[in-house]
Design goal:
366 residues, mainly beta, Immunoglobulin-like, 4 domains, 5-stranded mixed sheet, 4-stranded antiparallel sheet, 1 helix, 26 strands, 5% helix, elongated
Length: 366
């Protein structure tokens, strides 16, 4: 009986020793980069000799002792990770190949099972030049800058690898990209601005030019031009001519763009007319000679949507009579002269705003 049991034990041990390992029976090329239960991680950082990340390269790890091979593609930063199974250990070789399958790097490594390892390699051959693209995003209609816009640049580098980068405009509406050399040029697009029509620009690559400066002007989405008309009247009885009307404020759309514009009077009836977006504004009215301007400041909230609005501001302009002045020359008095100086005080319902006046006399008597 003991002899029979011993025979069964020997047969069981021999069967276990000669049965093939499930991992050694699968030595096919693994392009999925990862076994079902990875236990080893190989991180590879791939750069050109000048330090530029080598993106879009195929990195392949080949085992020298029956572990098969694994491969993966480097990202825009030149990084990738390989996940050989637990049977993959010992000496191996890492290759880096470009899109034409040309080997640009070969390095002998030793893989430790159940470990994470990281390797830094340089690839041979020419590296793509970095191109600088910067610019401003602005409003085509109102000439204001647009902050918070998402700008995207895309293209295909010299190795045939597509790239796509995004940036968000600053408070000054600025964006900047450092992109690889692309023979076919670059596609720039502004995305996700509901208040504006989208815009894009294709930039051809100019040999020898490494810096590009752009201005992307967006057209706002409005049904039609919104207009405001303003007129100032003499207590409702007549118009008051002014030299200039200044409107400034902030639009009420999601971008809150600054608005600043000076508008001359457009006809003899005292009307000012301007195209303005919805928003909240202050206006300043100027009248008089330079240095002697009468100004009236007021504020109002304008809410419009492709419509027109007309406002009149009545001003009280009473005559305050004449002033008697003494006219003298440098050598002494030459007599007194009564001159007329009509003065007008500009009043609103809130009180006195200012006055203007000009002497009316024969300058030959001075």
């Amino acid at each position: 009986m003991d002899r029979i049991l011993s025979s069964f034990m020997i047969i069981a041990i021999m069967s276990f020793l000669i049965s093939p390992s499930p991992h050694h029976s699968q030595m096919s090329h693994d392009n999925s980069t990862r076994d079902m239960n990875p236990t080893t991680c190989i991180s590879v950082n791939l750069t050109f000799m000048n330090g530029t990340p080598a993106s879009g390269f195929t990195v392949e790890l080949d085992a020298l002792t029956g572990g098969g091979s694994v491969s993966n593609i480097t990202d825009n930063a030149g990084r990738t990770a390989l996940y050989p199974g637990p049977s993959f250990f010992g000496p191996g070789t890492i290759y880096a190949m470009d899109n034409s399958s040309t080997r640009r790097c070969r390095q002998e490594v030793y893989i430790l099972p159940f470990h994470s390892q990281e390797f830094d390699f340089n690839v041979s051959g020419p590296s793509p030049l970095n191109i600088s693209i910067s610019g401003i995003v602005s409003d085509r209609k109102w000439d204001g800058i647009i902050s918070g816009a998402r700008v995207e640049v895309s293209g295909i580098d010299t190795f045939g690898n597509p790239f796509n980068l995004t940036d968000i405009t600053t408070i000054d509406g600025a964006f900047h990209f450092d992109v690889p050399y692309a023979d076919g040029g670059y596609h720039i697009e502004v995305l996700d601005l509901p208040s504006f029509h989208g815009t894009y620009l294709d930039i051809p690559l100019i040999p020898g030019k490494n810096d590009y400066s752009l201005e992307l002007k967006l057209q706002p989405i409005i049904p039609e031009d919104s207009t405001i008309q303003l007129r100032f009247t003499d207590n409702g009885s007549g118009t008051i001519d002014g030299d200039m009307l200044h409107i400034s404020g902030t639009t009420s759309d999601m971008n809150h763009l600054p608005f600043d514009r000076s508008i001359p009077c457009q006809n003899e009836t005292g009307w000012w007319k301007a195209e303005v977006p919805d928003g909240e504004y202050g206006i300043t009215w100027y009248s008089g000679e330079p240095g002697e301007n009468l100004t009236i400041d007021m504020s109002f909230q304008l809410v419009m949507n492709g419509s027109s609005i007309v406002k009149e501001f009545p001003l009280k302009l009473p005559e305050l009579g004449n002033i008697e002045v003494s006219v003298r020359d440098v050598s002494g008095p030459i007599g007194n002269s009564s001159v007329t100086w009509p003065r007008r005080e500009f009043l609103t319902d809130n009180g006195l705003l200012g006055m203007e006046g000009r002497a009316a006399t024969d300058p030959s008597g001075v």
